[in-house]
Amino acid sequence: MMESHAILLAELILLSICASISIWVEVLRRPGGMWLKILLLLISAIPVVGPVFFIFIDAPPVLPLSEQAKQIPKGTSVYPDFSPLIASIKRFFSQPGRD
Which terminus in the chain has less CB density within 10 A, N or C? Predict the structure, then answer.
């Protein structure tokens, strides 16, 4: 029984080390201030809890508004056109024999 706990703990620590290393590579490659990078590296270095906590505090990068507008192709609308739905409802209720 005790051996299985030791093996599980060793696997958990190994997984935590792998996650921390991948986080470190990601943090060091991204642009930004050195103090923020150091803080993120220290948080992710905490065994087991660090990588999990890092997932919750690391927000995705925010694009400037000018670049966000480029992601939506021109000619598309945010809201769909409801005319086919309205037409099918009208056909359903205008069928003969429906009272």
Answer: C
